[in-house]
Structures are given as C-alpha cells and as structure tokens.
Amino acid sequence: MEQSIDTNLLGTEIVAKLKTIYDPEIPVDIYELGLIYDVMVSTDFEVKILMTLTSPNCPVAESLPREVEEKVKSIEHIKGAEVEITFDPPWSKDLMSEEAKLELGML
CA-CA distance, 8 to 14, in Å (whole number)? Predict the structure, then answer.
C-alpha cells in the first residue's frame, strides 16, 4: 500500500510545509524568498533539500536547516529528511518570487 504514494504529491506537501518557515529578518517564507534550490523525494520517501541562506553569516545558519528537516520529517510517510546548504549560486534578490517582491514593496 505504501508504495502507491505519489512522490509528486509528497513534493507538493513538502513545499507547503516549507512555506510555513520564515526567515527571521525578512517577513517572507523561505520558499518564496528563493532559499530552496531543490527538493528531491526518493522512492523510499527520504527527502533531500538543497538550500541556501541569505548570507554565509546568517544568524540562523545553524537553526534554520534543523527547522527545515524537522518540519519536513513531520509529514506523513516521510522517512527522513536531510538539508544540504550551498552558496553556489549565492542567494540574491533575483531568486525571490514575484509574491515575495510584492510583499516587500520591491515591485
């Protein structure tokens, strides 16, 4: 039964969960900010998230990846979650969604 779970549907659930996590310095969720580069769900329901931070000296560099892992692991059927931080490419305002730019008065 468990193998019939749609990993694409799980991906949608993961994105929805990521949209509940906010950068503490910017009132926009981390997904709309463009901090999430990739979300991969294996057929074993293990999740790997490739993300960045707004800067290498980000004050939540330790806690934010842990929060992402914990929230993703709380989704039903997810067996595990791993976050990999990268700064390639470095984050820039160009990675923000139109919604985030509008929220921050940048449009």
Answer: 10
